[in-house]
Amino acid sequence: MTGVQTCALPISLYPAVKIVDEGRFRTDFDRLLQRNSRMPGILALDTRSMIAGNYAARRDLMTLVNQYGKDVVKSVMIMMLHKTSEMFGARLKQLPIGTFRSREWNEIGGAAPELQDEVYEVQCTMTNTGQKLIFDFSGTSPQCTGFANCGIGGLRSGVIAGFMEPIAYDIPWNAGILVNVEIISQEGTLNNPTYPAAVSDGITEGAIVTAAASSGAVCQMLLGSEEFREKTLVTSGANFLGNTLGGLDEHGQMWGTLLMDVIGMTATPTAVSDAKDITGSGGIPYTQFSNVETNELHYPILYLYRRLGRDSWGHGYRRGGRAIELAFKPHRTGAIYMLLWNHGAEFATGGIAGGLSASAVRFKLARGTPIDQLLTEGKVPHSIDEFECTPLAAKGENLLLPADIIYFGVPGSAGYGDPIRREPERVLADVQAGILTTGEAHRFYGVVLTDDGRRVDQAATDEERARINEQRLLFGRFPDEWERMVPPEEEVPRPSRPERRPAENGWRELFKVGMGIKVFRDPEGKGWFACAECGHLYCPADEDPKWRSLLRIGNLNDFSHPTAQMTRVEKPRFFQRQFYCPGCGLMWTNELARADDSILRQFEYDAQWLANL
Asked: Is the pTM of this model over 0.90?
């Protein structure tokens, strides 16, 4: 992998030892490890489960060797690697050839006060050559002085998690795929740090942000393929709500845990279907976590609820999926120490092809509530918002007291496509299912229901959607007309509506990108981008159509999702940029960005590939 090097650490706490030596379990070293742990029982179980896994793998492998012989088994393994590499190479030839970009952020470097204002960016430029995928992370922020870096393993696993599910879902997952993958990264960056950078939170920080940036670039490539945008887009989950809980239980015994409920994440929608609810975490396409009763049995906590978050998902032509939310309190203990270590409370992951983002990471803390009295009276709160509560930052420490309630809200998935193009009947069905209010149907989808909420008022809906389109055309400005890319204090109408430029007759349509862009070839063989809805001509295919689109910029909670930003709301650093067709107002893409971030060119197709279509 080009540009990636590991570093040798000059010191080690323990010398390399074998906990199982020639088949004998080293009880002396096992005791040493347990004596140095605050949770020796859990550590002992972890150690023994890993050993059991190795024994099971060895047993199964030896069964094959004994049945077929080592030469046959080795030959089959080599054949599988070659076959997988051939299959993956053939898959890359099916996909659009070109360069595709994405960027993601991680706020706050650690719990220390001096790290609270830090923001780290991961840039991913992915090129599909038709023979290999090249992931280039040039431009990624320097390594942080906190614990949010990830090592080489996190970089590699982030890349693999970013493309394996959406591209190789029907191909055997083995090292043969990696022959067709190259990673470019510079030492001393967030996902390729050098000693003595801290990487203790690397998996849920640097690695997940790397996976999100990688899958974002992959998604831009798949949007140009009808087969793949209708089948699969990106992996499950872009945020892991890292949490460490601990203290003394009612017996005075030390306890600690990480609540794995938070892997109740969800994948994105496709071009033809809404997202499924709770599909697992990134790279792990299933969900498995403890029952509420099991956690309450082992730890001094009492759940008030654990359920699908009604409003965690993003709006779009195809809506996002719902993730899990939960609230609990300390139970039969004086206090619980809580450490949060994650990202995404200040901003939400952006939408797809004009869809809107889902919620941000949501932590809320309600102090000194009358919860014990309410439970005594048989009253169970339905929401933490029934109490005065405070949003918490993505990283930090808190001490939970018996009357406190803590809420974890996992972000759902973002939407796909312009929300006001969603069929009104689907919007009505969401309202009737209880996952959308009539107010949200009106605000995000431009759908007006009858007074009884049972039917769509089609005339009023058509009028409202026309009004939203007109607002886009009236207040949108071309990117080069913006002096600074921040929300204006007051939107000023354009002096005149942009002129619509239709594609010429006789031009050949090559393919569609998402639901908003079509690629044409003119009679002279030159490629062009045009609106997929009204045919407005943006620009030649070697330019970025964003620069020929109308742009509006707004605060995240106003322009995307009501809880797309939970912290720094008064002085936001991130904004939503929405890009519209100047001819019809279709929102074909959007991006999360800070004021000084350049407009991201998301796709750049290979000229020779276009010429050969």
From this structure: yes
